Amino acid sequence: MPAMDTLLFNDPEVKGLAFAILEECTDLQAFGRRMLELLANAAMSAKADEACNAPYGERDEGRVNSRNGYRERGLSTAAGDVALKIPKLRRGSFFPEDLIERYCRVDRALVAAVAEMYVMGISTRKVEAVAGELGVRSMSKSQVSRLCECLDAEVDAFRRQRFDGVRFAYLWLDATYVKCRVEGRSASQAVVTAIGLDDT
């Protein structure tokens, strides 16, 4: 039965496919995008085979489910937009959560880049332009705004965390002015930095 660890590059068929893709692609980013698409779809297919307890298209007495086509979905990545073919099953649902976060169309690298730009106080319009330069054409101003709203909640939770019961042997305090978001807008603010060294 296929598994994730069988998707190795020492397979001559996979090597041949990788070289064929390299020849058809005009630049390294296109090659990376195409390889990511190929590997993600192959990994999802292997996961679906595991869920069915049998390889796709083969008769097997141990089969517990069967395939029912694909659900196409776009995923925006730092390499650009890739087309995913998520297998559907006849009974139940299938979504490879460990491969793709449900309903998330932007990969973690891009989220980290957007988060950094956001923390630096860069406008959503400029963030949208930078995302376009990274090859993500589908990231709109409203998507950037929604992502920033999620980050607002995370930043607020971080700011409100408590250190009850923690003893600090040393505490360094400093302040600097930085561009940041205040009430949804970019502004220059004094930021106090506290670095604590606990006594353990």
Task: Supply database-style keywords.
200 residues; alpha+beta; two-stranded antiparallel sheet; 5 helices; 4 strands; 40% helix; elongated; disordered N terminus
Give your account of this protein's structure.
- By secondary structure, the protein is of the alpha+beta class.
- Among the domains are: 1-100, no CATH class; 165-198, no CATH class.
- It is 40% helix and 25% strand.
- It is built from 5 helices and 4 strands.
- It has helices spanning 12-24, 28-52, 108-119, 124-133, 141-159, and strands at 67-77, 80-89, 168-182, 185-198.
- The strands form 2 sheets. A two-stranded antiparallel ribbon has the order 1-2.
- Strand 1 and strand 2 form a beta hairpin.
SSE order and pairing:
Blueprint: H1 12-24, H2 28-52, E1 67-77, E2 80-89, H3 108-119, H4 124-133, H5 141-159, E3 168-182, E4 185-198
Antiparallel strand pairs: 1-2, 3-4
Cross-sheet strand order for the largest sheet: 1-2
What order do the SSEs take from the amino end to the carboxyl end, as H and E?
HHEEHHHEE
Helix content: 25-40%
Low-pLDDT regions = 1-9
The main pleated sheet reads as:
2 strands, antiparallel
Mean pLDDT: 73
- Global morphology: elongated
Oligomer: single chain
Q: What separation lies between the terminal Cα atoms?
A: 50 Å
The number of helical elements comes to 5
Strand composition percent: 25-35%
Number of E strands: 4
State Rg. 23 Å
Structural class: alpha+beta
